[in-house]
Fold:
Amino acid sequence: MFPTKKRDTYFESILKSGYSRRDFMKFATFMAAYMGLETTAIGQIAEKLQNTPRVPVIWEHFQECTCCSESFIRSDHPIVADIILDQISLDYTMTLMAASGHQAEAAKHDTMEKFKGKYILCVEGSVPLGDDGNYCTIAGRTAIDILKESAEGAAAIIAWGSCASNGCVQAAAPNPTNAVPIHKIIKNKPIIRVPGCPPIGEVMAGVIVHYVTFGRLPETDRLGRPKAFYAKRVHDSCYRRPYYDAGLFAETFDDENAKEGYCLYKVGCRGPMTYNSCGTIKWNNGVSFPIQSGHGCIGCSEDNFWDNGPFYERMTNMPGFGIESNADKVGKVAAVAVGAGLVAHGVVANVRKRRFLKTRITRGKENLQQLDVENNKTEE
Amino acid sequence: MATNNFKRVFVWEMPVRVFHWITVGTVTSLTITGFLIANPPAIMSASEATGSYWFGVVRFIHFLSAYIFFFNMLMRIYWSFVGNKFAHWSNFWPFNKKRLKNVLHVLKVDVLLMNEKEHDLTNLSVGHNAVAGFSYLVLFLLALVQVFTGFGLYADMSGWFLPKMFGWVVPALGGDFAARMWHHVTMWVMIIFVMIHIYLVFFHDWLEGRGETSSMISGYKFVRKERIRDPESITEQAVEKIEKEFEKETEG
Ligand code: SF4
Structure:
């Protein structure tokens, strides 16, 4: 099943697919730029890709919609799709592999055994824990089983997309299948999270090339996301940012301001709360990204983005106060209630302490009279 | 009817008063700009972004006020160790016998508005009463929530180590959404605190007539003469001392 000859290096595969060396160098430069590396790293990348046999990748699909794969095969640079994905690395990916049925399963197990501890496991989709995991079964086995098995011999795991990194829509309240992201199940492997619904294809290529070049996963932030792509908010690289800073906002999607291209903050844009690089890498070969197409960011790469309130309002829901309640509504009611309570307290205080107040007032008045007498005396 | 005599007592030292009013100023500006940032009015249209930056300015004021608020708070923490006994940190911790007794008194007389059978002067606190003191501890904790979530949200826009130190807060809370929500909710709790605080200042001033309101400006509160150990001699000594010093200065 598996080729017995020495595996091709990345470079060899690239040449075999009809790309020139020049294309290859461009690709190396391109990847270095995406990963935020300095120019001297280009040589390093090129050298590694030339000498390293491809890293085998097993791609598991669980509860997902395949938008992540779709995004990946539409990455900006053709080599990303052709080489990293198409013929070379992906030994097993349900949606794209030629093999099927027992053949495919056999190929997967072959890779798992042969490259134990060396392959990269890429997981797309969340894993349901409810009802013994029976909500998602493939070839008669539950997703939990399959994941545990393929994670066992993986060198590293890429949680590809929001489902695998934070549960996405399946994990949204009330989460009927009890879907969880993979880091809730696999604890003993390095997991890099690449959230997004879907994530940007270049990020994945970046992660793999980084792994090939430096032998380890790229630097991640506190949430396990590669820093090179998730260190900034969409808002910080948004081309509408000058409108935001100038206080120029669209109020509805069809007003004059929206046509002017003003900032979409007031119609619910989540760019200010979302970490991703849509504003710089963009989508579909760099054609556009949601905000450029006139729709606010929905924060698809943030944890719980489905449960964080309506997409077209600025406010986020407040937990524990029911649907459609936000901090301002609750705050206003509380402030009015407290205000009324204080007024009532003030009134009652004056009634209850009336005798005390009366003596004080009488004393004060008496003293006032004394004061007048003295003043008159001195005047006389 | 006999008149009560009061003595002027220096309660709130300058740093305490300055702290109070800087807090008032910064919290006000933080709240106003905070509301604007949460829900900016679209006051302009049909213009270009070039040369206009009002929302950026609003945000700048918010961040600037936050820094002032923060350092002011640090100063107050320092002062709670070196200041006079009314500024001391123990005022904010009501869990000892004497203070718990005072808590009970305040709850009965000031909150539930019961009348005392016998008026006991020592029940009136000169500085903070025990309940008020504790409420300031709660306020301090609310302020900490604001500092942590606020700087946490700010961390990624800053290159300075101070806000960067709070970078772990946002992931710990589960993202910007949650951090922003708590920041916003806590602001509302602080607004409600301010309402109650202002009401109670007026309440005490009106019922006790001890200069509660003005004390935060002048530093003085008025205390019944009976409570001062030797009212005459203290003042006389003090006055004599000042006069002597003054004489020396004018001679030299
Ligand atoms: S459109 Fe969204 S991301 Fe862009 S500046 Fe406005 S709020 Fe920020």
Q: What stands out?
A: The pocket of iron/sulfur cluster is lined by residues A 234-235, 238, 240-241, 244, 263-265, 269, 271-272, 291, 296-297 (CB under 6 Å).
